[in-house]
Design brief:
The protein is an alpha/beta fold and 230 residues long. Helices cover 41% and strands 17% of the residues. Bound molecules: NADP nicotinamide-adenine-dinucleotide phosphate. NADP nicotinamide-adenine-dinucleotide phosphate (NAP) binds at residues 12-18, 36-38, 53-55, 79-82, 100-101, 127, 129, 172, 174-175, 177-180.
């Protein structure tokens, strides 16, 4: 009898880390379903793409269908994310950042985790950020979304203890994608290195991973200084 292929769904994989990780999973013999607003041009029989916005009313339905077309879901990676500078005359972009980065992840969890619990196995990885401990006057929606995401995913990890389902929160510093577009990007990682981190997460299922380590140490030291004084 042919061995069952491991199945993954990657949300936010038309570009950046999600796209590179999708390619790695396929090269490693996984069957993958991908979700983003744009197609990513991957044309192999073990890959299916679903174009939808994670904030759209039918997102959960599309995601459920994508999973049902797979043979179960061993791994779900939430890599969808945006970050916009603040404009005090129009805070819609901050609201949207919270909707994509945090509520989109929560809707994903609500679709995926019950299936994993029913199967008694599964692994959810969420791409958070070292911004989760920062107060940001430049991009408050981004930092707020990542603070909420890290806290929610770690809480879920605790809630799922003993169910066979793991949740990993990944806190990257700067990774060389179009998202890291600012002029100052200390200790920036290549996308390949970020993918290597995710591959190790799949193998070891840790609760929390912060990379690069030196950037994590720096942000821990700097975080208290980002709080407004009055
Ligand atoms: N790059 C960094 O420095 C860095 C650092 C720390 C954490 N992260 C986190 O890592 C994750 C991936 O970031 P990245 O650098 O790979 O960014 P990226 O290159 O901009 O890719 C973001 C992905 O999210 C998808 N996406 C955005 N809005 C979406 C929506 N409304 N519905 C569905 N998909 C959506 C995009 O696809 P479509 O546009 O086709 O929808 C794209 O595939 C993000 O959560 C980010 O916050 C990145």
């Amino acid at each position: 009898m042919a061995e069952r292929m491991r199945c993954a769904v990657v949300i936010g994989n038309s570009d950046g880390i999600g796209l590179a990780f999708t390619r790695r999973l396929l090269a490693d013999g996984w069957r993958v379903a991908g979700v983003s607003r744009r197609d990513n041009g991957i044309g192999v029989p073990t890959y299916a793409h679903h174009t939808v916005d994670v904030t759209a009313p039918d997102y959960s339905e599309v995601l459920a269908k994508a999973i049902d077309e797979l043979d179960g879901v061993d791994l779900c990676v939430y890599a969808a994310g945006i970050g916009e500078p603040v404009d005090l005359a129009d805070l819609e972009a901050q609201t949207r950042t919270l909707e994509v980065n945090l509520i989109g992840a929560a809707r994903t969890v609500a679709t995926v985790v019950p299936r994993m619990v029913a199967a008694g196995d599964g692994h959810l990885i969420g791409l958070s950020s070292m911004a989760d401990r920062m107060v940001s006057g430049d991009a408050p929606g981004y930092a707020g979304s990542k603070a909420g995401l890290s806290s929610y995913l770690m809480g879920l990890s605790a809630a799922l203890r003993g169910q066979g389902v793991s949740v990993t929160t990944v806190r990257f510093g700067f990774v060389d994608t179009k998202m890291a577009k600012g002029p100052v990007r200390p200790l920036m990682m290549t996308v390949d290195r970020a993918v290597d981190v995710l591959v190790r997460c799949v193998r070891n299922r840790p609760v929390l991973v912060s990379r690069p380590r030196r950037a994590a140490l720096l942000t821990t030291l700097l975080a208290p200084l980002t709080r407004p004084r009055r």
